[in-house]
Amino acid sequence: MSNVYIVDTTLRDGEQTAGVVFANEEKVQIAKMLAELGVYQIEAGIPTMGGDEKEAIKKICKLNLGVSIMGWNRAVIKDVEESIDCGVDAVAISISTSDIHIKHKLKKDRDWVLKSMVDATRFAKKHNLYVSVNAEDASRSDMDFLIKFAKEAKEAGADRLRYCDTVGMMEPFSIYEHIRRIIDEVGIDIEMHTHNDFGLATANTLAGIKAGAKYAGVTVNGLGERAGNAALEEVVMALKYIYKNDLGIKTNLLKEVCEYVAKASGRVLPLSKTIVGHNVFAHESGIHTDGVLKDSKTYESFSPEEVGLQRQILIGKHSGRNAIVAKFKEYDIDLTPEQAEEILKRVRSLSVQLKRSLFDKELIYLYNEMREEKIKDVNLQNNI
Ligand SMILES: CC(=O)SCCNC(=O)CCNC(=O)[C@H](O)C(C)(C)COP(=O)(O)OP(=O)(O)OC[C@H]1O[C@@H](n2cnc3c(N)ncnc32)[C@H](O)[C@@H]1OP(=O)(O)O
Ligand SMILES: O=C(O)CCC(=O)C(=O)O
Description:
By secondary structure, this protein is of the alpha/beta class. It has 14 helices and ten strands. 47% of the residues lie in helices and 13% in strands.
């Protein structure tokens, strides 16, 4: 598999999540974090919105973060001028290619789409910008027209084509076919930009990459329109562990970046959020904890430290003896097999009463309670 480049659009599509707004300083901070993480390109926002949006993009450009900064534009020359005014080195020039959008949203025809895209692309290239031509709603477009669009984009100087699964209705097998066909017939670099309406955004991005796409458009925590986009943390780790393609991203910073974006966006990370959720390395079931204690690879795809997390062994209703013994060892208490068995019974009963796993303090309490009962029994037997 050839090299894959991460294009992060947390500051553009991520902020388009209904109800989400980043403060300007948060946009700047997120850009700094993404640069430190090692992404290839940051889509920083939409310059033609003006005001704060433009100010934040200008600030990000001035930081010289050592990564490409892209401004998002409609296929409108005035939009591209606003991007140039911000100091970006790259522009996204977006226009719909599906008939649904062309007829009902733009109220134009295919020729108008081609001409608008070509004019805006030529204009941007004249200003020495890197250009991604974005085919919005590509996945619902007539493939022959999409091929024509991609060919004209290439001829006009586009550096890549963004294939947008705008409403997230593709599945990996068909997306593979689409991407292969565009690459074979046009020979243009492709960026995958997928949405998660059916929970397939990451899978679709991976399928596109397998077909030869070189760029993965992602957002932190999978923020984005409706159900969101492919999540940066998922795509990076899946590429590393499923496709054995390490992009050199500083994955140990992922947890910190995801938490920052969660706070800035007001969208909390679920405990079991893939890759970075607080509990994705928490084990409670007896068979799992026993395996993990013997060799963590038995039930973990990668080590928690790799993404800035820590492993947790929880003791609760589903625990087994080995986990109990290991937990008490942490407190320098060596349980006999009988004691471990007895504590396990008490753990199960208390867990069901409380409907949760137990805190370490509660375990020590159970241990002390068991010992006191034993002493009482011995005293009774000895008539003391
Ligand atoms: C799928 C996506 O994520 S696309 C990105 C979507 N992001 C956003 O919309 C967030 C930022 N958007 C905005 O701030 C505003 O919508 C602006 C500045 C872009 C435009 O604002 P307005 O001029 O007030 O127009 P409004 O938003 O009401 O309508 C969009 C107009 O752009 C046109 N348009 C939409 N997409 C494109 C395109 N890719 N290329 C050219 N024109 C387009 C629409 O047809 C409509 O034109 P009309 O007014 O002639 O009917
Ligand atoms: O990236 C684009 O230009 C298109 C907008 C988008 O986010 C999408 O189509 O999903």
